Structure formats: structure tokens, C-alpha cells
Amino acid sequence: MIVILAVIIVTLLYYYTTKNYSYWFKKGVKHDPPVPLFGNNFKNYFGLASITEVSVELYNRYRGEKAVGFYRGPTPELLIRDPDIIRQILTTDFNSFHRRGIGRDPVKEPIFSNLFHVDGDRWKLLRQRLTPAFTTAKLKAMFPLIVECAEKLQKVAAESASKDVDCDVRDLMARFTTDFIGACGFGIDMDALNDDNSLFRVLGRSIFNLSVFRMFLITIKDLFPNFEKILPPFSTRFKKDLTNIFTKVQEERKGQHSGRNDFVDLLLELEKKGKIVGPSIEKTNADGTPAQAELEMDVKIMVAQLFIFFAAGFETSSSATSYTLHQLAYNQNVQEKVYQEIKLLAKYDNKLSYDA
Prior knowledge:
- This protein is mostly helical.
- It folds into 2 domains: 1-97, no CATH class; 127-347, CATH 1.10.630.10.
- The protein is 55% helix and 8% strand.
- It contains 14 helices and 4 strands.
- Helix 7 packs antiparallel against helix 8, helix 8 packs antiparallel against helix 13 and helix 11 (236-253) crosses helix 13 (299-330).
- It is globular, with a radius of gyration of 24 Å.
- This is unspecific monooxygenase.
- It is a peripheral membrane protein.
């Protein structure tokens, strides 16, 4: 009886995960043969390659094709290679292609109600409200905060060099980026450069150090999309921490612009503008015109934007800067060129500035 039941379960599982595998063949779109259950995403699911590496490999394998089929688990996806088609998708036909496949349930996990993760009307309205916040003038106003963190980095690096010991540059730059994101994003001096156990440093680890269980949940979500509603949320801990940090800063500033010109200041400015309203890209009225879409700029939405500000800025910046330092260490001639460029700061009173 147990054997029969096991055979039935395996058969149903095989059918469910392979029933779409003729999709691209029927459409006449070239693609790699899918692996049962995993599709063409086996390497990514098992941590052997990032989704970017998988996509680039597929892109290069089918030179001459305008589009290539791909299966993320049981779900068929299309990799576009032709610039003209890409342009048409992003402009003329955007209303039909606004979903990017990385959306999360904003009701179940409100911290993912950010510009990177949401789709549809939420994405459009957030983009409409947030884009003007990143003007050159406002980014320039944040620069002194970065300079302040850079000066601390200089001191820590000098101390390390004076001790003539090995320096873990990856960790050093992770702590540096944690500090300047804390300053530029939250208006908080986290001092991660001197305290490796500061709150933001711990938060960064919790976001990017994926446990086996979290990787398993992400894979299950891809393989069985219908199970997402019953899977536990990924974001419980850092959602709570970020919400506490934001509400504390908000209370300290009494909901007003503090003059620090950090990201919290920008969000508080946007909150004062009230509800975000605009034409929908998902719904239409009876006469075919776009319906009106609305989104309240509440605490949950603002915390979600802070989350992506932290997550996107932390890992990317620390990886890029640590790798740059690694390359400079191995390429003395390039290092010398950089040094000569730094010496040009003399005309700016030997200080880092936005203009420099």
C-alpha cells in the first residue's frame, strides 16, 4: 500500500512539474531541454550559479536568436535578445509586460512593498512618487554624510596598516557600507567600522546570509508557486528591526525634515504629499480608459523603501569596493594612477567633495 501511494505521489509530482515543458516547443522557440522538476534552473536552485550567470550563459548560447525559452521550475519564461523587441516591451507594450517575476505578496510580506519587488500599480505609483526624490541636488546633499564615513574608514585602515597584519577587506568594506547606509538612509551613526556587532551589521548578515531553510523556501516557491500562500514569510526578523528603527527616528524628528538630507528625510517629505494617485496599468473602466489607482504612503510602505535602500546599497557597494581594492593590490600600476588622481584633491582643499 505504501509503495503504491509513493508511486502515485511521484507520478503526480512528475506530471505537475513537467506538464508545461512542451510550451516553448509548441511555440517554436529554441530552448535547452528542461530537467524534470527543476526546468533549466538547476544550477541556481543548488547554489552553483546565480540567476544572472544562468541567464548570461543562456543568452550567449543562442546567438542569432531573437528570443530564447527558459523554464524556472515548471514556469515557462522568455529571455529576449533582440534590442528592438526589448524596446517595444519597455515602451509600447509595457502594460502587458510590467510583471518582472520577482514580485512578493505585499499583504503577507509588506516589507517587500518596495520599488524593486512590487509589480503592477504599486510599482507604477511608487516609481511615480520616488523618482523625483533622487535628483542630483538631493544626492549631492547626502554626500557630506558619505565623506564623514569615509574619514572614519581612513582611520580604521591606517590603524590596520600600522599593525602590519592582514586585513579582511571584504569585512572592512561591509562595515563601511553599513555605516554610510545607516547615515544616508536612517540618519544613524551605527559605528559598524568599530563595532562588528552593531545592529545594522547584524541586520545585513540576517538579510544576505541565507540559511539552508531559507534557500529551501525560495526554491519551493519557484517550483510550486501555488504554495506561496502557505509558506512562512522570509522577512519577519528584519521587518521588525527596520520598523522599530524607522518609527524611533520618525518620533525623534516628529515627522519633520531634520536637515540631514538623508533618505528618512526624503520619505517624510513624500509622506506629507499624501496618497499616491495615478492611472492604473492593471485595471480599466467600462469605457476602456485606465482606472484610477491609489496607494497610501504609510509606515509599512516607507519601511519597505528603507529595506531596499539598505539591502541594495549594502551588498552591491561592499562587493564592488572590496573587489576594487583587491584588484588595486594586485595591479600596482593602476594603483599609482588612482593615487595620482587622489592628489588632484589639492585644488579642493584636500577634501573629498561631490564636485571632486
